[in-house]
Amino acid sequence: PICILAAPHIHDLADQIVHMNMIEIKELVDRIGDHFGFEDGDAYGGDGEGSGEAAAEEVVVEEKTAFDLKLMAFEPKSKIKVIKEVRAVTSLGLKEAKELVEGAPTVVKKDIKMEEAEELKAKLEALGATVEIV
To answer: How far, in Å, CA of 47 to CA of 65, rounded?
Structure first.
């Protein structure tokens, strides 16, 4: 193999670049890109078609359709009312509903539509519970 030695100033420059922080490297890349007239995608190894932007556009954001209703807390004086409502919406027995409510924060109902979650949240909050839709 042939060994080609670079000029000393190239070694010095390489040494300086290696010891830069990320902000300095970003600034260096931007300035070199400006000097040579690179577009944003070109300067970072794009395939000439703006691959980074195209890939970002291709990512389809799935809209969440199923939500969980989570009981975070409840007022002690309204515990019985909250248990009754939890029984009504989950069809649990009295013991199971009581354990569920006392175990707050806990998920009361899973995989429900947003409309149903908001309706149940309003009912439980009216009774003195703190509820989140997750």
So the answer is: 36
